[in-house]
Amino acid sequence: MMSVEGLIGALRTQGYEADRATATSVFLSLTLERPLLLEGEPGVGKTELAKALAKVLGRSLLRLQCYDGLELRDALYEWNYAAQMLHLRAAGAHDHQDAPLNALEQEVYQSKYLIRRPLLQALEAPAPGAVLLIDEVDRADEPFEAFLLEYLGEYQVSIPELGTIKALTKPVTILTSNRTRDLNDAVKRRCLFHWMDYPERERELNILHAQVPEASQALSEQVSRIVNKLRSAPFADAFSRSPGIAESVEWARALVALNTLVVDPEVLSDTAGILFKQREDVAQLLPMSQALLSLDD
Predict the structure, then answer these.
(1) How would DSSP label each residue in 88-143?
(2) Which of 27, 73, 95, 127 maximizes the CB count within 10 A of its CB?
């Protein structure tokens, strides 16, 4: 098992700049074999951390994208009813006419008729196992949280027709939440927790260098300075939400594509839709151009 410092370095090789607190949480999750719940504003790098970690560990990444109305059949499994019906018809047409009903039921409820979804795929993944990303779990309904408890606590699930299925190799499990609502305490108790905040300017500058190496030092510094201002008072109070790391990286890429050497009010106006996705926020941004572009922090 690598150290916290080794994990920081390994993640950096995959283009992910983790601070020590984040790397420590991941390290403990790996060492203690506990799920890790990452909460924070959208765009702070929660999902990208899971992707980078899968590459570092050499494990396949399985992603369960949560949404309102997510059901068991979307997350764990469902039966291939079409194949089951074909089997029953074939059995009826040949030498199974006198077979007991329970025998036919056992035949159709076999593993080969099971359609595996991300949770079950993670449990059955062969060594070295999988990284399971349960993304934006706060978007799912509360009943789905109750269903997750067995998996999170024991790395197993129960299927009525097959019994309990335990993990072959315990999957590394990352849950992310944008905190649009509070999660159930029972879910939190089964996980380690880490709050991911916006990075300080130096770390964001390192992220920009890693993700957009073609951007000049001066342009990267200007991007990080402007975005840092947008997240701070008094600017942040004017917007519905501040731009995340994802937006700053995308903005830097857009500026490089436009052959921008220095951001000026015109460039800021033309590319405002990369930083903000609401019309009202874009409108609020434009009068602030001079203050944002000044060298004063």
Answers:
(1) HHHHHHTT-TTS-HHHHHHHHSSGGGEEE-HHHHHHHPPTT-EEEEEETGGGS-HH
(2) 27
